[in-house]
Amino acid sequence: MKTYLVILIALITFNVQSQVHDKSWRHIIYGKEASWFATDEAKEIAENVLLYQRDIGGWPKNIQMHKPLSEKEKQELLNLKSVGDNATIDNGATIQEMLFLSKMFRQTQDETYKAAFLKGLGYILEAQYDNGGWPQFYPLKKGYYTHITYNDDAMYNVMKLLSELKLNTGFYSITPEKSQLEKVNLAYHKGIDCILKTQYKQNGVLTSWCAQHDENTLQPAKARAYELPSLSGAESANVVLLLMSVENPSNEIINAVNSAVNWFEKTKITGLRKDRVYDDVGKIVDKRMVPDEKAPAIWARFMELDDNTPFFCDRDGIKKSTLAEIGEERRNGYAWYTNKPQAVLDQYPEWKKKYDLQSQKSPKNPMKIVVAQDGSGDYTSIVEAINNTKAFPYERITIFIKNGVYKEKIKIYEWNENLALVGESKEQTIITYDDYFNKIGLGRNSTFHTYTLLVEANNVILKNLTIENSSGEVGQAVALSVFSDEVVVANCNLLGNQDTLYASGKGKQYFKDCYIEGTTDFIFGSATAFFENCHIHSKKNSYVTAASTPQDAAFGYVFKNCKLTASEDVDEVYLGRPWRLYAQTVFIDCELGEHILPIGWHNWSKPEAEKTAFYAEYSNKGKGFQPKERVDWSHQLSKKEAKKYTLKNVLGNHKDSSEKEWYEAL
């Protein structure tokens, strides 16, 4: 207890001495030439930066880290390392130190700097709330410090860091390992989701953001006495610029940006200029607002939630209508107006031209539409293209998608029948989204809302695409959902974890030459589905299929000439289990890896399903094919029985004629 008190007293004393704003530290980080970071001077400062880093990975704020330290001060810092209470993202802390270390590593390749940078990244990832926001301090510090903090661009700075790492732009010299990059990707998308959910609705209309939002309700929240719940003209600007930087923005993001820009236009103040009055030594002694018709637009830092009226506040927490009404200390020592939103308004026309749905032109050929992110096609997003296709066409409409990563949540509606989505290449035409069960949060059926691509229309072709749910291993998260009839999925990668492919409905579906990966029940549903020449890859000890075949269906899932593999250390995988009692799954002429358990099948703790489900195999091969060890309620088909599992018999509509079948449209 005595040791802890000594450390606590040292912490308070040290922070009183060190919590001083000094722009020169920031200048060192952002203003020095790259070559300077290889000098002895830089290395001495780097030793200070390493000393100030807490064991938890973060740094305290407002520290003059370039100032020389005495041996006593160095020892005090070593004693404080285990006390993480002051680690924060406020005032640029942690993010700017990580940038400094990145620049040091780029010049020196000293692994010490890399390790400290990655430790800082670990701190950022650990500090994030499940809802995607970040508190001002972590470990959590009582009071307003627990709120989701946009104030002074705290969360924006974190999101920019994650974006640079996620996109591998080279801005930072250090590339995290794959597992940490996956966490970075998840954290970034959760952050975007939080931003969208915290955008304030004023009388039903989206506006902007507050400097801080309650971490539970997500509503605008109070911080210091003079920082009351309000709409912020300052912090909202960089939030919007961040959303505008998202490639292939969702309709939600597009709507958020458009709404915020409308709000900036509505709340800008013209004809008013801010003047500063200085004393003989250059200190600001007064700030005054002066009428000036030629003054550029400015925005108030704080505006009323209900009607956008600017207000000002002293340390007594009482709102005032003008800056002149508050005391000298707060009037001169705080930024009450800002011009930051002007950067949004300057960039918005070009962004709108590229992404706003209403500004898109009609396709040159409505039956052969091209999507290209570089603007060389008819549309820049797949959703736009689908939304502009003719409903219930008599002839097939083909949407050709050029290579690119399309972060879109796509729905092919019932009226979009006779539609084909054809990628330029399977490897480089990537459709990705990151919804998952807990993120959707719509109750027990949230899984069905997590899809990246949903097909509700009949007679649809998906070809040469990668369709991915990028949320990571976070529970149920669907990549592709198909509910309809006569759907072909050819030469596609279907990537995810739990519940990757939902092949469902009462229709017929054909999966040809596809790669399908996942962890648990990653091929599931009620459809009659034929999988031919597919590569089925298990990423975890679990179950490949979870069919829910209707009782009256002639066939369920049929796998023919497929190859089943697994990731390293995966060695206990079942071929399937019955999601519903009459599940049907058959493997014929397939190569089964040694990860497939000898017993093959699981009854999902439903003994009654052993009498109603139909699980069978024929002529499989590989170490995972052990017919004598299979559960006694599964079947090994005879040659005669296996003959009925032809493509035409399972999926065809003209079994007794040579008339062309629907799946031959490829």
What does the model show?
- This protein is of the alpha/beta class and 666 residues long.
- The chain folds into three domains: 1-198, Glycosyltransferase (Alpha/alpha barrel); 200-241 and 251-359, Glycosyltransferase (Alpha/alpha barrel); 424-653, Pectate Lyase C-like.
- Helices cover 28% and strands 20% of the residues.
- The strands form eight sheets. Strands 11-12-15-18-21-24-27-30-33-35-36 form an eleven-stranded parallel sheet.
- A hairpin with a 5-residue loop joins strand 5 and strand 6 (284-291).
- The relative contact order is 0.05.
List keywords for this structure.
666 residues; alpha/beta; Glycosyltransferase; Pectate Lyase C-like; 3 domains; eleven-stranded parallel sheet; 28% helix; disordered N terminus
Q: Spatial order of the strands in the main sheet? A: 11-12-15-18-21-24-27-30-33-35-36
Number of helices: 17
- Give the CATH architecture of the largest domain: 3 Solenoid
Oligomer: single chain
- Low-confidence parts, pLDDT < 50 over ≥5 residues? 1-22
Rg is 30 Å
Helix content: 25-40%
Structure classification: alpha/beta
Count of folded domains: 3
CATH fold-level label of the largest domain: Pectate Lyase C-like
Overall pLDDT: 91
CATH homologous superfamily label of the largest domain: Single-stranded right-handed beta-helix, Pectin lyase-like
Protein name: Pectinesterase
Keywords: Aspartyl esterase, Hydrolase
Pfam families: Pec_lyase, Pectinesterase
EC number: 3.1.1.11
